[in-house]
Amino acid sequence: MVLQMESPAPSIKVENWLRGEPLTNLQPGKVYIVEFWATWCRPCVAAMPHLVQLQEKYKDSGLEVVAIAADEDAPTAVEAQTKLDAWLTEKCSNLNFRIAFDYTGEMNKLWMEPSFSVGIPTSFVVDRDGHIAFIGHPTELDEVLPKLLNGSWRTSDQAKSAETERIAKNEPIAREQALKKPINDRFWAALKTEDWKTALSAIEEGIALLPDNLNFRLAHANLVLHKMHDMWTGLPLMHQLVRDAIDRNSEDWMIAALDQLFHPNLDHSRFPSSERFAIGKELSEHVLALNPPQGDSPKFWSYPAVARYYHESGNKNRAIELVELALKSLDGPEPIPAELKEHLLPELLQALANYKDQKVCHGALCAAPQKNFLPNVSKRRP
């Protein structure tokens, strides 16, 4: 059954309440923000102070904020809850709303999956009559809440249009996620036990199901080349990944392929050196043609990967130039979220210090050269 605006709100079924009094059921006459979040999710963390402000601002209007931590990343529920509790103690001493913990997946099944919600943070607003009034990103709450509290939101064309647009955008993604989930579960479970045969079987099933999925293709190449160390099978896979990236003229695909060849936390010692650098040269030239240095497109995603190729191939000056352009694009004409800049800036600055072999600064932040620096790579799940 689809969960959308005007649907009755599902139950709250969580394992523990870590902050605030337990909530057994949603009370008529109150408006609830039910926020799905996690400590590893930067936009979620960035939204927490905003939720504190909303709770304070609208408490006399009957607003209750309930944050659901249903996606904490830890091997066991005990470890996840312990880590979450410590994080809340350190980072969120001024909380004025409830925090619930669920490791079972029950809350995702009740709320996220039936509503075609495909990522976090996601805010559900439950109206005074217990029905869903809004599903979306917490940044939209400033506009929605006043209209919802005065009773004008749910009957408005704006609300209906926003909900229609949300479902049209998210439903195909959600259905693909549902197809991928059993494959992901098998793949990641096999990786943890180093059962490469089962992992390979799962990822090949995924590619047969979704041949254009970049994450499946990357996981396939990474598994064969960097876990199984099967160059005989892996090199043709790598060549096909590169050809497809270039044929698609896709910056994302090209950078993903470059990372398989030059990222410093991967072992490339078994890869034929001349072949690796020839492929790296071809990919780098295509990226720079697609996103030229003199153009206005952001450089902070792609240029660090290209810079690694140039640095490792001996062209240190070119690598420095590209990282400097990436740093400059953080302050470009198109503003980027503060939390994203905060995430990218230290790594770009560290790469520049390493390439220059000297201390460098950007505003108040400085970095000194590190011989064994490994950047923090975001997890890319199939």
Task: Explain the overall architecture.
- With 382 residues, this protein is of the alpha/beta class.
- The chain has 13 helices and 8 strands.
- Strands 1-4-3-2-5-6 form a 6-stranded mixed beta sheet. A two-stranded antiparallel ribbon has the order 7-8.
- Residues 376-382 have low confidence and may be disordered.
Tags for this model:
382 residues; alpha/beta; six-stranded mixed sheet; two-stranded antiparallel sheet; 13 helices; 8 strands; 53% helix; globular; disordered C terminus
What is the H/E order? Answer: EEHEHEHEEHHHHHHHHHHEE
Order of strands, main sheet, comes to: 1-4-3-2-5-6
Tell me, rounded to a whole number, the average pLDDT. Answer: 92
Beta-strand content: 5-15%
Structural class: alpha/beta
- Major beta sheet summary: 6 strands, mixed
Outline the secondary-structure elements:
Blueprint lengths: L15 E4 L11 E7 L4 H17 L4 E7 L7 H15 L6 E4 L4 H7 L9 E5 L5 E5 L4 H9 L7 H36 L3 H14 L4 H14 L3 H18 L2 H12 L10 H18 L12 H10 L3 H14 L8 H19 L3 E3 L2 E3 L15
Parallel strand pairs: 2-3, 3-4
Antiparallel strand pairs: 1-4, 2-5, 5-6, 7-8
Helix pairs in contact: 5-6, 6-7, 7-8, 7-9, 8-9, 9-10, 9-11, 10-11, 11-12, 12-13
Write a compact overview of the structure shown.
The chain has helices at 42-58, 77-91, 106-112, 141-149, 157-192, 196-209, 214-227, 231-248, 251-262, 273-290, 303-312, 316-329, 338-356; strands at residues 16-19, 31-37, 63-69, 98-101, 122-126, 132-136, 360-362, 365-367.
